[in-house]
Design a protein that fits this description.
Chain B: It is a multi-pass membrane protein. By secondary structure, chain A is an alpha/beta fold. Helices cover about 40% and strands about 25% of the residues of chain A. In chain A, the strands form four sheets. Chain A has a six-stranded mixed sheet with strand order 6-7-8-3-9-10. Chain B has 14 helices and no strands. Chain B has helices at about 1-30, 35-40, 45-55, 65-75, 90-125, 130-145, 145-160, 175-210, 215-220, 225-255, 255-260, 270-275, 280-310, 310-315. The chains are: A alpha/beta (about 550), B mainly alpha (about 325).
Amino acid sequence: MSAAKNDMLLQIRGLRIEASNGAVLTDGIDLDLRRGEVLGLIGESGAGKSTLGLAPLVYARAGCSITGGEILLAGQDLRKLDTNGRRSLRGVRVAYVAQSAAAAFNPSMTLMAQVCEGPIRHGLMNRREAEAKAIELFAALDLPEPKTFGQRYPHEASGGQLQRAMAAMAMSCQPDLLVLDEPTTALDVTTQIEVLAKLRELIHEHNTAALYVTHDLSVVAQIADRIMVLRHGKMVETGTTNDILMTPREAYTTALVAERKAAMSGHGVAEAARGETVLTVDDVTIKYGPVTAVKNISFTVSRGETVAVVGESGSGKSTLAYAAIGQIEAAGGAFRFGQAALPPSFKKRSLEQRQRIQLIYQLPDIALNPRQKISDILGRPVAFFEKLSGAAVKARVAELLTLVGLPLDYTERFPGQLSGGQKQRICIARALAARPELVICDEVTSALDPLVAEDILKLLKQLQDELGVSYLFITHDLGTVKRIAHRVVVMLKGQMVAEGATSDIFETPPDDYTRKLLLSVPEMRTDWLDEALTRRDIWRAGPAALPA
Amino acid sequence: MGILRFIAARAALGVLTLFAVSILLYLGTQLLPGDVASALLGQSATPDALAVLRAKLGLNEPAYLRYLHWLWGVLHGNLGNSLTTGTPIAGELMPRLINTLFLAGYAAIIAVPLAVGLGILSAIREGSLMDRLASILSLAAISFPEFFVSYILIVVFASQLGWLPSLATVYDGMGFWDRVDATTLPAITLTLVVVAHMLRMTRTSTLAVMSAPYVETAFLKGLSRSRVVLSHALPNALAPIINVVAINLAYLVVGVVVVEVVFVYPGVGQLMVDAVTKRDLPTVQACGLVFAIVFIGLNTIADICSALANPRLRSRKRQ
């Protein structure tokens, strides 16, 4: 960029943020940011990256406070500002884009009122000027009907539109610094690419500096000039985006990069002779009242095989999973287990039929009763399905814990004393307690940090090799699919658009949607977004023009 | 279009509820031991006299027929005749209903803005001295029985200071300001009784919304705390507040018997209590029906207002 890039905008020195219980959230963080520069803050949940991101707004979430260090914005120490000074800083010089725009917009105000509120309240513009500016930003962000878009309430716009509207809101006062807190994490991949492209355009156009908080290295690679890796509230390392991706110095960064690379490397499973069929999904249709959620889906799952059902939110993939276990009754078609047809409702299924199919939920925090010990959580299905009691139950519980790689003394713990990954291991053990032939995994890694998710996937694979269990794997993450699935079912708006061996689907996507989906998965290189956008434009011009 | 249908549906439901209440009301009065004839005749009840009176009052008809007759009358504005005075009930009820509504309205005009205002202020200054004082004082006020509060007020403002009359005497043709003067003490008593509930609900539901992500967003836009509370938190906390206000308004109409008795105020509550002691069942039914109309009407209006306050409900049918 120009000379403006050379002056320093934000300098943080020795920043320390503590929770009221004494826990240290960030400690001794130093950070420099020039005008127009984008710094990616990367780390797992609890790394302190969001906490650090809020520091330039001199804001700490409830129960936390900034206890040490300096935050200099253009040379001025923000911590010395009084309440009014902080108020006239926020939104004007430093603006914030929240993770979930759906939650971050006030549901009872129009988008226009919320976007214009900042400039009007800060006395920068009158209502007419603010609205004109908002419409200009809506148009720049490619929002539909920019002139009238602002009249909508948040529930009348889609997730991707809201996220862009939130960016418009943040830019309404022309801030020097933008703090973006996981702005695309809640979006589907095909939406993420649009939002990412628009955010990058906006930042470059206005020469705004930005802190981009995310857990996803391949996303931040597209937008950041430099990356800072955080762990347990401390800086691990910092460097240019290319340096971090290509030549990470610290072991932790190396592991993070390797995890994402693995996600991209591909499973490479050839279509082998498939084993005996375990589950047959035969022309299944599922309805919610008048709405058809899933329409005429057919595929099979063989013994020892992983079939991934992929799709974006609202594609009906979870609905299909819950129909397979009988929680939702299919309106048409049938599920067959082995040779026998399964009754649509779990209430009419035999104990054995229920035992053979088990489910692992998305959120281990919610799936475990916080007031039961691990021994009770695992002991109950053991006693129930295997009719064991006393020492036999204990022995089986110990066996299950060993299977999922947890120490035996965990039986005496409560779920609250375990980490997220350990809780998910307990959930897996609970599903295995029934000795199932088919386990349905509903987004089992999406609530976990990348490295933890990686371990869980490895565990699932290892269990499959040992026990010969089949998985029906519901996910939106194509990286996960590539690594674990033998076969893929791609769903779009309740319909199956593609089905086949993973390697076939990934190498020669049979339809436009699958191709678009694959093109939208960010890759770990800085030029991916440009390439993807070019390919998208060609693709929009006509699928035939797409290079093979 | 959608909201009109919602209002129509809600109003229809209100009418249906009222209909059900009228049945319960009629059944309830029928369940009382003895009948009107024996109550009327008392000591002088000979079998012959009873039979004659029962025939005259139509008590020999089956209950459902009598209910239908009554309902037919009510729908045509005829609430029946009082058994004690023999005159149409409507004539006695109407002036008292106006009295009751006057007092309730007076109390509401003080209580609702006071409670909601203090509730919002408490939310804006959560944990401040003002917040704690409002909370403690309103709790204290609600903890004392109504008659106790009434007598304290009478002792202080009527006996000691002599500012206001101790009896809320009203009569036909009384001037508006005289009426206000006469009913000030009962209105203040009622205010003290209902403020706490509304204040605490306003404060709690506003604060509950304060932890929402969009409130954080508003703070991070650099808005002041009062602006955040008033334009971001409050509109989303309105539904529970509206409902509590409606319940308390209804209480001001239907739950004021004690206050009416203490201040000797001729309202509907007193009329109903008198009618019960005299076994004047048609009057009891009429009073009960009036109370039911007020209660159901206010709650229906509250539901409609909460729906109007929520853009999601406002435009649900549009999508």
